[in-house]
Amino acid sequence: MAQINRSEAGKAYFKRTWMLYAMLILPMVFFLVFRYFPMINIAIAFKDYNIFRGVWDSPWVGLKWFQEAFTSRDFYNALRNTLVLNFLDLIVGFPAPIILAVLLNELHIRSYKKLTQTVVYLPHFLSWIIISGMAFQLFAPSGGVINMMLARLGFKPVNFLMENHLWIATYVGLGVWKEMGWGTIIYLAAITSINPELYEAAEVDGAGRLRKIWHVTLPGIRSTIVVLLIMNLGRILGSEFDRPYTLANPTVMQVADVISTMVYRVGIRSMQFSYTTAIGLFQSLVCVIFLLAANAIAKKAGERGIW
After folding, report:
1. Which residues on adjacent β-strands are paired with residue 54?
2. Is 0.90 surpassed by the pTM of this model?
3. Beta bridge partners of 60
């Protein structure tokens, strides 16, 4: 009897929600066709791939390309640069939208708050091609706006884009400036879900503005912070291509060459597809390991994680 009632309840539920399931068919087909089926070509990492013979007719070579990558000085240089730049992005860039969201939440003049939100969101919609052009105009050692101002103040020109440590600082700073406002949207949405009565209770207990932020706002968005931190840790070895490629120049390639630019330079331009596929597979596996480890640690710490 219980099984019959459960079956009837399931049928009734499906009749009410079948349109939602039907709407999921298209995105599932998209992911199958453009995300999962192409994974078959991972086999290129274990073959001596020939573009004219195709994937399956090319001879198997086992772990040859992985061994070549792990003995390559260029690979270790790109791996080190990827880890360093992404780690600095995480340390500097991850707290920035949290701080900005908390500050915006404390603004009471709505017109000024909306204006500030719009201004900080806009850089996200600019491509790195545009931003790199702006950076060269601002930080150029001879005709850059910043160095012209420093010269008028009596200071020597600073090679922001020509010296390794200054290039790294510029790279990280531009990344924070571009994405800080966009990340703030998620945290502001999380803050709006906090029960206002908690702020009122804290105020009755004598809590000031900083105390309310520390004991109400931040704990209220802690789960959101943990989820986004896990996702960022999952990308610790991944790197976008256009940002380092457009900001780099020959004088800073020692710190600017990351895995994505190396894959483009060696794999696309030099047509070493098997070698760079092996590097890409290694990169993906490490990202998955970081993601799983971060999620497991978050669950042990009492958080929900991402699944």
Report:
1. 50
2. no
3. 47
